[in-house]
Design brief:
homodimer; mainly alpha; 2 domains; 3 strands; elongated; DNA-binding
Chain lengths: ~120, ~120
DNA sequence: TGACGTATGTTACAAGTGTAACGTATGTGT
DNA sequence: ACACATACGTTACACTTGTAACATACGTCA
């Protein structure tokens, strides 16, 4: 599974909170923050769909985007990669240390813990 | 300060252990691991020097490379970036949780802690 | 039905990164 | 002085990412 880039992650965060959303709606949320033109947002969304980071549906005649993987799933991959390559921590990670990041709820942290301590070569 | 890419980080890790080293010596260490040709290693080294990740000197008529920033300095930047963008943890970070990563000694962790809890917009 | 706004498709271009070959210079041994 | 190995400089090419414009299609209102 391809890891999202920083910009892609920004978009995913919006969609994890509220999905599906149209390109227009996503632009309203991330455009000002990233200082992107609508065009740029759309290009990034297309690429994310190509890479299967997002699923594409049509609602009321408009294309809407939904994340393919859950927040916990995606972030566990990103975190695993980071700890492996940067800190060379291959084994179980001390995820409890991050539980005050507002990024995830307690349940999501629990889910993430599961993924992180999985057999580790299954996605 | 530009963050090192994953490959660049591999080279830096070697040089933090033992520097300065020539391109040939670096190749002997990272070539097999990264499965790089000597050419590739040299290109990457040049780019790292351009970006001021490495300093270039001449010893006994050969070019040798030395990291510009300490391991603690560099990793603090990488970690800060990661926690900011991925987990949105802006404040002080629970670095104690990582102290069993063999990447840094106790002294280096102490140095890293300092950087991480610095005013945060000074490099 | 024609104009206008919005949605969608296509194309572009520069920087960064992975990956490497080609050509040239220079030191060392014979 | 020449050949050979090694070092060094230059160039190449594809892929990803950031960033965006241009063009076309389609629905709605007048």
């Amino acid at each position: 599974m391809t890891q999202p880039s920083k910009s892609e992650l920004t978009i995913l965060k919006v969609l994890w909170t509220e999905a599906p959303l149209s390109a227009r709606e996503i632009q309203e949320k991330v455009g000002p923050q990233l200082k992107w033109s609508f065009s740029t947002t759309r290009t990034t969304l297309s690429r994310m769909a190509e890479k299967s980071l997002l699923r594409l549906d049509t609602k009321h005649g408009v294309r809407v985007y939904t994340p393919v993987e859950s927040k916990a799933r995606t972030l566990s991959g990103v975190m695993r990669e980071f700890f492996d390559t940067v800190l060379e921590m291959k084994g179980p990670l001390p995820t409890a240390a991050f539980h005050d990041s507002k990024m995830l709820s307690e349940e999501e942290w629990a889910e993430l813990d599961l993924y992180l301590n999985e057999s580790h070569d299954d996605d």
